Amino acid sequence: MEDKFMSLVKGALLHDIGKVVQRANDNPTVKKHSEWGYEWLKDNLKDDLAAMAAIAHHYTKDDDYALNNNFGLIWYQADNLASKERKGREKLQEGEWHSEITLASPFSRVNNPDNPEESPTLAYLPLFLEKIDRTTATESPCSKQDYKRLFDAFETDFNSHEIQKPPSLNFLLMLFEKHFSHVPSITMKIYDGLKKEEIKEKHPDISLFDHLKLTAAIAGCMYRYYSETYPEKWNKNELLRDEILNISDAEKPYLLIGGDISGVQKFIYTITSKGALKSLKGRSFYLELFTEHIVSKLITALSLTRCNLIFLGGGHFYILSHNTPKAQEAIKEIKKGIDEYLFKEFSGRLQLHMEAEPFHQKLFKNSSEVWGKLAEILQKAKKTKWKGKLQDILKPQMPHKECLTQYCEVCFREDIPLKPLERGVNRVYDAICDSCKCQYELGEELKRISEKEHPVLYRFDLEKSEKDPETLTIKIESSKYLLQGGWDKEIHQDASAVYRINDFTAKHYSHPNSIYMPIGFYQHKDLEELSDASPVFGLNRIAVLRMDVDNLGKVFSTAIPEEHKTFSRMASISRELNKFFKQYLNTIVEGKNVEEPTDLANRDVKSKGRMLTIVYSGGDDLFLIGHWLDVTEVAFDISNYFRKFTGNSFITISGGIALNHEKYPVYQYAREAEEAEALAKKNKNTPEDKTKNSISIFGNKPFKWVEAEKIVERVRLFTKFLKPAERHLAVDEKRLPSTFFYRLLSLSRQFNEKGVLILPKAAYLISRAKFGENGAEDSLKIKEVIMTQNVNQWKINETATMWTLMLTKKGGGEDAGE
Q1: C-beta separation of 559 from 551 below 8 A
Q2: pTM of the predicted model as reported, rounded to 2 decimal places
Q3: End-to-end CA distance of the chain
Q4: Which region, left, alpha or beta, applies to residue 192 given φ > 0 means left and ψ of -120 to 50 means alpha?
Q5: What average pLDDT does this structure show over 155-173?
Q6: Which of 621, 628, 637 is nearest to 657 (CA)?
Q7: Would you say 574 and 552 are in contact if contact means Cβ atoms under 8 Å apart?
Q8: Does the pLDDT value for residue 295 go beyond 80?
Q9: DSSP strand E in 243-344: where?
């Protein structure tokens, strides 16, 4: 890529570095942040052209470079468009420069989706992310010493000796995300003459990282747009001041590209139970990889950078691009090539829907129009799936000559060659197609590298690479991808790109095309097959958990007030959601670094981890599978930390759990968990109740999270009357009759299903127990929850009792309570 283009984009990405330098300085006000930034860039970046961005993005009448240079105009205008959330502030009376201001969570701008007039309280983000429950209700000032510590850490990483100089753009992107995600992009604290609620509306909530990344994306688009639209003037270095600063209302220099892969559910879940865990993991990761492959191709074809990648996750992506005939043609060509590949490789089961919506620069301030239009055309495209391939789809296909008597044991295809899959002396499959074999092996690799501290994904573009790796790889079009547990010097040198998975270690970014890649892929070290998770504790069962964010469409369409729907804020909220489901989820699910993981049977989750795996996570949803107790408990941890992550009680998450035998078909698990999740989202306490915020557990019983938490507390109460045994809890018959919880479950069902008067029977049940030996407080509590006519208490009792009985099972095949 051209040196001048990269200098322009780097300059845009680094233009406000002076804000951090200034805040970390002992005498911050002796110079403007632009001067602090320019001096630092001159000394450290070794790119004089890029360093000019620090000064040029705030040009004045005396600034000849900014006024009389196209790069200066682009930096100025890109910064202006990326900071539209600040417009209107200059008309207010401001307080003095306030360097200690704390960044508010971008979710603080999301109102109640069911009542958009109701706004949340501000939630604040600490400058340093030291715990995963990151938001706080009170603002803790960011001191000069805090900024010194932050900038020292940044400079240490920046000067890592393994990194090539000048540093690559992707390396800088990773560093900025690592260090500046919680740094406010501005330090104005507006308070003079304003009411408390008005101050809240003006509090900064866009991070320096998000502002700089978007500025760089816009600058890259402008370079391409003006160099392609006005080639003669551009090549002669003629000034394009009016063209850049005063574009007409009819001109639409920008494109928002959206991509969505359809057919994902069937692709992942329509598989046999044999070898299901590896196939599930492999297929899910393949889709993640495939989406990244498309994004990488697009960015390369458009001659842009990863700054222009606005969002990538859950089979979706959005890219900010320039709107020129060349760009439009590149998008069409890539879509055509991807469609041909998918149709040939998967017989039409997967399809890429990709559209691009042109827009005027004014929509950077209120971007809901462009996002809404793009969503509409994507939805329309999904309704005409494979419109140009109908003849091929309807054409009768004879089985492959090798498939006259068999089909692929994983995907059931019979139109392609099959072969057996063996591991040592064991035959895993008698007949499997190459695609399913590759995805199964990918699942094996994911299990292997999940135990490594710094896994790596290498990409080889076969048209450019000198070597075609012979080790296990997955091929997509003319590229191959290789998973490794760590760095490999020989492979590293020949790779076209190196993806560092969940890795913010600066010295690991020595490859000129190193890319940070967050992935939710936790898997317990002892979990090889689903059968390994079944006998962990209590009842032998596997469970699936599906969860997603409630009302996400409303969150972006109506819950964010019009004045806050800037492009930067919409992008920031999307990125933050993706961060939770890709980056944070690994920690929450494992349980080891969670302060107080839900651990009802005291199994020491903090040291042993959870016997489950993430099948997929990203965007706004997740799918987990593993031991029923681990899956159920972690659902509560996810809900708890999601609330702490957003700091906004109006942004909620709902889920459903399906539970069955280890040999139960995976697609049935997926379907039943989906039905349970849908049931949770329809859960209403009253006809007027519009909130979702629920979980369905054990027999599709939906509860609001606040009620579900009471179930957990009730189980904790019940287990105080049990004793530990090998891999289960046992009734202590010195204190409780062996049938106590079975009788309690029966009474709960009689009350909940038939409204039978049960207090006399409940009193008799209590009379046979020796609660006193457990302490007066616990004895009183259990009597209170049983001797009641309260409907909600008995609903809680039923599910809590079933849960408790499942904990007391010694494995077995029968269901608790039956």
Answers
A1: yes
A2: 0.93
A3: 67
A4: beta
A5: 87
A6: 628
A7: no
A8: yes
A9: 254-262, 309-313, 316-322
